[in-house]
Amino acid sequence: MKLATELQTLGTMLDLILIILGYLIGSISSAIVVCRVLGLGDPRQGGSGNPGATNVLRLAGKVPAAAVLVGDWLKGTVPVVLAWLATHDPLVAGAAGLAAFLGHLFPVFFRFQGGKGVATGLGVILGWSPLALLATALTWLAVAGVSRYASLAAVVAFALAPAFVLWLAGSPVLAAAAALLTVVLVWRHRDNIVRLAAGEESRIDLSGS
To answer: Is the Cα torsion angle 113, 114, 116, 117 positive or negative in sign?
Structure first.
């Protein structure tokens, strides 16, 4: 009985560590780090003011934006993979992914001023279900390709993500986590939604070098 209690406590502590680690990894702002390394200034001070790949694309071109995209993607996937390897528990994997996502939005290392979470959210979904990620990413690409609005593509793709996760991963727990992620992401894009409705949202500029 004592051993079982100790193992249960150890499991609880490990779960908590994985969730906190997810938040800390998510708090590493790829956009700010990449721009500082390349001497491009703070992405929060130009363009849309958002420290994410889309704004870096507008400000600095494709190569820096690609580096930011990869960094944001990985910091969503890595905490989920670690949670799977350590616990095999979808609840912990879901919580670790959400923690990484919230870390990107509210990074402790950068005065809680983060991005809007699209790339990191896609990375989280990859950790939950590669097939769900494929469906979500293809939806994003299709909407963005037709409309040239990154924000519209994000809202549409993530609105469908919980259904993709439920269908392709078969996990109600992960689907619920995806739904929470979607609610926060849509809320984070509320200003973009207002500009879309007013016809004032900026389109994706693919002419950067």
So the answer is: negative
